[in-house]
Each structure stands twice: as structure tokens, then as C-alpha cells.
Design a protein that fits this description.
The structure is a single chain. By secondary structure, the protein is an alpha/beta fold. It has 3 domains: 184 residues, P-loop containing nucleotide triphosphate hydrolases (Rossmann fold, 3-Layer(aba) Sandwich), CATH 3.40.50; 75 residues, Helicase, Ruva Protein, domain 3; 103 residues, Arc Repressor Mutant, subunit A, CATH 1.10.10. 49% of the residues lie in helices and 9% in strands. The protein has a 5-stranded parallel beta sheet, sandwiched between helices. α9 links the parallel β3 and β4. α11 packs across α12, α13 crosses α14 and α15 packs across α16. The longest helix is centred in the last third of the chain and has 28 residues. It is globular. The structure holds adenosine-5'-diphosphate and magnesium ion. Adenosine-5'-diphosphate (ADP) binds next to α5 and α13. The site of adenosine-5'-diphosphate has 21 residues, from α5 and α13.
Length: 448
């Protein structure tokens, strides 16, 4: 029986009759519509996500829960952004008062995109023109900045009279461009003509932009618009640990840029994230549940959101809207399965070998250090962690780092300019190992 018939031709209870029966199965009349697909999993709600009159209370809560914790999507609603008030204040002051360009950096999942969306909304409220762009491998200067020009009405051009025909016609800065490729000089010149408003160009995932020229051009653009006192500012975000990665090309722009590392959230920040989710879902977390989420999240909003959502589903599966600490355990197991799927098979094999060879505890400790340090493994931190109280006997840091990098190839010297640090070959490993340790510890405690 091939994969197709084994999936669609066989109904529950049918014995596999081998090759001879396949013709019979193929000729059998299709089952009535009502029976088709029986036994396959189904979506629980309708795509419109609308609540009908007859929607059961639990379906309603489930729907709200999906909106309350969105680990796969950045936060768009300012009311749902937890714990980033000080950072946002710093960003706003730097933009508004100091006319600085910003570079926001930090690991995946720390909340950069969420912060950028909320910042963009706040800026628009103050009538800034804001253009948010998520960079990709093929991002290049001409099409990107051409599309930005489309968004600036000629109304904001210093040399056009507001009553002019062009403005009445609704033309934009893009209409001043010809067919030739848009150069940094031309873009800078046009940006220096912006008047009567301020423009923020937000470039997210800047490190993903693959073209070598692109970063260089953006660095030059920042220098030009700063030198000309333009009303245009750039806000750049990426996973680069270190600013220099982004601005190596034009060192003199350093004084025009404020680099901000997005730190892990505090415990209060995570508590706020859960409290927001509680509000939005209509579910309640017990204080022990909250504690366990906080312990697991290590200040990473992505992890808190993922565990919060799975814990909520675990509670709903037992028809409760109160999420207790056992629901969080169940949620953590789900999260572990989810993280497991994200690790590349070859890396997974090497990790399993290291675990079989007795290095699980060491690896979990390394993972914990990584999650608390922007996914980096600074040698000094490793030494401190491996020698601290309950971990004594895990071996010395240098030996451990050598073994994990040379024998198991699970970590590698970090490419960023942080003195003497390593990083896991894949961020997913750190998340997986840490959550695995938490779930095992929790299981042990329950068994005791
Ligand atoms: N301040 C926050 N409050 C609540 N949830 C957050 C916050 N920051 C991030 N998250 C959650 O964490 C996940 C990752 O955030 P994101 O902004 O996409 O991070 P990054 O862009 O750094 O990879 C998002 O799905 C979002 O749900
Ligand atoms: Mg992002």
C-alpha cells in the first residue's frame, strides 16, 4: 500500500490486506461526504476566527488564548508589549531630541521586532512618517529606497509650494526619480529636502540582507543624512551582537548612532507579559504557575509566550480556565517537543551522542549561560557556572569548551567581537537543552 492509499484509502478498523487487496480498495465507492477524512485531525475553529452566537465558552477562551500569547508573531498591540518601557523611552529621546540613528541588536526572540512595531505606532501618533521594512536576502538599495520615496508626499518637499499642481495631484518623492539606479548620493540629496515632517526608516532583520553593497550603502546614507541635518532617521535592528558588525564600513558615523542591546526581560517584565496574556485570554495563572514560567523563561519573552500558551491549552484540555503549575509542566513538555523539531538532524545526533557520553548536565549548564547572555558563552561565565556550588565537578571551563567544540561540534568560537566567547552552532540547541532540563527537574520533583 503506498503512502496515498495508506492515508486516504484505509479506514479505521480496516486490516492491512497487502498488495492483493489494493485494486479492490481503489475501486471501492468513495465514502459519503460526511465520513470523508474521518480519523484525521481537524482545525478546531473556523478561519474567520469569528465568534458565532452558538460558540461554546471554551472555544471562545481558546481563541482568546491564541491571541493572548503569540510566540510565532511579533507584538503589534502596544497594550501587549511588556517590560520595555525604559528601552522605548531611551529610543524615543534619542530620536526626538538627539537626532540619532538607532541600532537595536540582540538574539532572535528577544523582542526586537515587537519593539520596532510599537515604536513605529508611537511615532505615527506624533505624525512622523514611518516606513517599516523587514530585510531579506535579496534586499538591495535601489528598490528599497525607491519604495520609501513613494511614501513621502511632495507636500513635504522643501521646494514645493503647498498649492502647486504636483501636490494637488498627490505626487510623491518617487516621482522626482528617473530610470537610472538610485544612488546613495541621490537618495541623500532627496532626503535632505524633507521638510515639515520627520521620517523614520525602520530596517528590521538588517543582518539578513545578503548583498555586500547594501550595508555599506546604508552606512554611507546614515553619514550623509547626518551631515546634512536631514529630517530622516534610520532605526536598524538585527541579531548582530555588536554594533561594529553593522557600521564597520564607515567608522565616522559612530557618533551619529546609538547602539542599544535588547536585554533579557526582568522577572517583573515576564510577570507583566503573563498578566497581559491573562487579561486577553480570560484565563488565570496561579502564582506557582507564574513562578514556574518565570523560572523557565530566563527573561526571554519568546519562551515565556510559548510556555504560557501551551500551559493555557493544557488547562483547557482538562476544561479549566485556571492554569496551575501542573498545566505549566504539561505545557513545557509540549514546548520541548516543538523545540526538538527545530534542531537539524545532524546536530541532534551529535547532541545525543554527548548526552549518552554523560555530558547532559554540563550541556544544560552551558545552555543556561547562553540564554542568559544573548546566546553567547563567554569563557569567564562558563568557568563561574561550572564551578559554582552544586555544579562543582563538572570539569574546568577550557576542557569543557574544547570538548564541546572539537569532539561534539556543538559549539563554536563566536564570530562577534566579544572577547573569548563561544556560541552554540544553532540557537535552537540552547533552548532545547534548557527546557529539557527544566522538564526533567520538574518530573523528578513530582516523583519525589
Ligand atoms: N515585550 C514583549 N511583551 C510580550 N511579548 C513579547 C515581548 N517581546 C517579545 N514578545 C514575544 O516574543 C516573541 C519574539 O519576539 P520578536 O519581537 O519577534 O523578537 P525578535 O524580533 O527579537 O526575534 C514574539 O512572538 C512575542 O510574542
Ligand atoms: Mg524579529
Amino acid at each position: 500500500m503506498n503512502w496515498f492509499s495508506s492515508l486516504f484509502g484505509k479506514r479505521e478498523g480496516d486490516a492491512d490486506q497487502g498488495g492483493t487487496a489494493s485494486a479492490e480498495i481503489a475501486l471501492a465507492p468513495p465514502p459519503p461526504a460526511s465520513e470523508r477524512g474521518r480519523g484525521l485531525p481537524r482545525f478546531r475553529g473556523m478561519a474567520a476566527d469569528q465568534l458565532g452566537v452558538g460558540t461554546r465558552r471554551h472555544d471562545r477562551v481558546r481563541l482568546n488564548l491564541r491571541r493572548a500569547f503569540t510566540p510565532a508573531r511579533p507584538i503589534m498591540d502596544p497594550a501587549m508589549l511588556a517590560g520595555r518601557t525604559d528601552l522605548l523611552r531611551t529610543m524615543i529621546r534619542a530620536i526626538e531630541d538627539q537626532y540619532l540613528h538607532l541600532v537595536l541588536f540582540g538574539p532572535r526572540g528577544i523582542g526586537k521586532t515587537s519593539i520596532l512595531h510599537v515604536l513605529s505606532g508611537i511615532a505615527r501618533e506624533s505624525r512622523y512618517l514611518v516606513r517599516y521594512i523587514s530585510c531579506g536576502e535579496r534586499t538591495s538599495f535601489d528598490p528599497l529606497f525607491r519604495s520609501v520615496m513613494v511614501d513621502i508626499p511632495l507636500l513635504f518637499h522643501a521646494r514645493y509650494d503647498p498649492a502647486s499642481a504636483e501636490i494637488e495631484e498627490g505626487l510623491s518623492f518617487a516621482d522626482l526619480l528617473d530610470e537610472s539606479p538610485l544612488t546613495v548620493d541621490r537618495a541623500s540629496e532627496l532626503f535632505s529636502q524633507v521638510a515639515g515632517t520627520r521620517l523614520l526608516i525602520v530596517l528590521d532583520e538588517f543582518d539578513r540582507a545578503g548583498e555586500a553593497d547594501f550595508r555599506q550603502s546604508v552606512a554611507e546614507l546614515i553619514k550623509n543624512v547626518s551631515d546634512r541635518g536631514s529630517q530622516v532617521q534610520l532605526v536598524i535592528a538585527g541579531v548582530a551582537q555588536n554594533l561594529t558588525e553593522i557600521i564597520t564600513h564607515v567608522p565616522s558615523i559612530r557618533r551619529n548612532i546609538l547602539g542599544l542591546r535588547v536585554p533579557n526581560m526582568t522577572q517583573d517584565g515576564i510577570a507583566e507579559l503573563i498578566s497581559n496574556g491573562q487579561h486577553a485570554s480570560g484565563m488565570t495563572f496561579t502564582s506557582k504557575a507564574l513562578q514556574l514560567i518565570n523560572l523557565t523563561a530566563l527573561g526571554l519573552p519568546y519562551l515565556a509566550s510559548l510556555v504560557g500558551q501551551h500551559a493555557g491549552f493544557a488547562a483547557l484540555d482538562r476544561s479549566s480556565t485556571t492554569i496551575d503549575h501542573a498545566d505549566v509542566h504539561r505545557g513545557i513538555s509540549q514546548v520541548l517537543a516543538h523545540l526538538d523539531l527545530r534542531i537539524a538532524p545532524d546536530v541532534r545526533q551529535r547532541m545525543e551522542q554527548a548526552i549518552r557520553d554523560g555530558h547532559e548536565r554540563t550541556l544544560s549548564r552551558l545552555a543556561q549561560v547562553a540564554l542568559a547572555n544573548s546566546f553567547l558563552l563567554p569563557r569567564a561565565e562558563i568557568a563561574r557556572e561550572l564551578n559554582s556550588g552544586s555544579n562543582a565537578g563538572l570539569g574546568n571551563a577550557t576542557e569543557t569548551l574544547e570538548r564541546m567544540s572539537k569532539v561534539y561540534r556543538l559549539i563554536t568560537p563566536s564570530v562577534v567581537h566579544v572577547a573569548d566567547a563561544y556560541a552554540f552552532v544553532d540557537d535552537g540547541i540552547a533552548l532545547y537543552l534548557w527546557v529539557r532540563m527544566i522538564s526533567q527537574d520538574a518530573a523528578c520533583r513530582d516523583a519525589a
